[in-house]
Design brief:
This protein has helices at about 40-50, 60-65, 70-75, 90-100, 110-115, 115-125, 175-185, 205-215, 225-235, 245-250, 255-265; strands spanning about 5-15, 20-25, 30-35, 55, 85, 105-110, 130-140, 150, 155-160, 165-170, 185-190, 220, 240-245. The protein is an alpha/beta fold. It has one domain: Aldolase class I (TIM Barrel), CATH 3.20.20. An eight-stranded parallel β-barrel has the order 1-4-5-6-7-11-12-13, surrounded by six helices. The chain is globular.
Length: about 270
Amino acid sequence: MTLTKRIIPCIDVDTDENGDAAVYTGVNFENLQYTGDPVEMAKRYNEAGADEFVFLDITASAEGRETMLDTVSAVADEVFIPLTVGGGLRTRSDIKETLRAGADKVSINTGALENPELIGEGAGAFGNQCIVISVDARRRFDEAGEYYSQVDGESCWFECTVKGGRKGTGVDVVEWAREAEDRGAGELFVNSIDADGTKDGYDIPLLSAVCGAVSTPVIASSGCGGPEHIHEVFTDANADAALAATIFHFDEHSIQDTKEYLDERGIPVRL
């Protein structure tokens, strides 16, 4: 049986000047602009036919604080599709509290790179299906990597970053994806800092490299400018799910229209 491809809207959440949770949209993880209220947006996407929903607290790790669980709980009350929450998770206790707040899955980036054993601990305690390892990747055109791809005629590798893309780690993304899978990750969530917010399309070389290296489901993220880019990442990179933000946040495309576009082109989706 062919598994359907998933369409997943995502909100990037930070605190505003009043300390309240708010959704922001940016380019290359920078120049963030206010976009809306997280609870209202969650409710809208739940009604719009999204297959899943992702809530990312985008500055929790960089600021060394916990995820805003009160807002997570309020979002969970409005969402009746699988909810993934990420940002600032460093311990098994953080995972437990986030799931208790209403998340179905947790997305971990910095915490897993700093303590890889957290992946197995989380999978063992709560099930592999709950543990999503997030990767914030950036291109590097030097000889420090392990696995190389051709990008615009040049050889490059992809580096894992932490602190919301602010700090490089020297870890090769493909090597880390394989390790995360071996340690028990149930899913990989691959973001491209180079493509983020550009609307020029997903980073196909990055996603092809990761999808070709693991059997764990891969969520493609960053760079979507329309349904044609989602079609491309499914057909050219073989991603299992496509995440998008801007095109849905600003009503440039609807989830239903996007699914119909894919269905017409032979991509199995849940209509």
